[in-house]
Amino acid sequence: MRTLPRAEDDWPPILVIRTDFRDEEGWRAVRAALDVPWVLDEDDSVKEEILFVEDPAWADAGPAEILDALTAPGEGEGGEPAECGWRVVFLADRAGMDHEKPSLLAVSTDPDEETPSFRVLARVTPHEMHCNLTLANMDFFEFEGWDVEELAESS
Questions:
Q1: What is this structure's pTM?
Q2: DSSP 8-class letter at 38
Q3: What is the pLDDT of residues 39-66, one digit of tens each?
């Protein structure tokens, strides 16, 4: 059975799950892009801790499979699925293994989210999303479309 970690504190690391194992160079590009901090101003930047799941058992897994693994049935109140602790998880899938502008599929862990997933650039946006969602400064849907122009240029 495939399993994923649960967040164990109020400020979990960014969770990136690799689901494509065909392109090592593309994967290195994704990791390098994630290494770029989110610059708030000339004196301040944010670089969140990242937890990488690089298990080939997750090859070609989609958002539904990931969300099923993150929420174990019957562990929450009243037999409801337990919350996994993350507001968003990121999939490093085949579509994101672009060597020039690597991207990730951002997936909301909220089952009621109207737009449950969308693509973001691996550079900076995951740090900004994770920080703002963990602080509850913004909602998941507010990030949709942030990287559309840059992503379109790389297609």
A1: 0.86
A2: E
A3: 777 777 777 889 999 999 999 999 999 9
Say what the alpha-carbon torsion angle 95, 139, 131, 4 is, to the nearest 10 degrees.
-60
Compute, in degrees rounded to 10, the torsion defined by CA atoms 51, 52, 53, 58: 130
State pLDDT tens for residues 8-29. 777 889 999 999 999 999 999 9
Record the tokens describing residue 152, joined without a space. 């379109």
Picking from 147, 143, 103, 128, the residue whose alpha carbon sits closest to that of residue 46 is: 128
- Alpha carbons within 13 angstroms on the beta-carbon side of residue 130 total 27
Phi, psi dihedral angles at 31 (to 5 degrees):
-65, -40
Count, in order, helices (H) and strands (E) of the chain: 4, 7
The residue with tokens 């994967």 is: 27
Q: Which listed CATH number (3.40.50, 2.60.40, 3.30.1560, 3.30.870) goes with 14-38+45-154? A: 3.40.50
CB neighbour list of residue 3: distance below 8 Å, 6 or more residues apart:
69
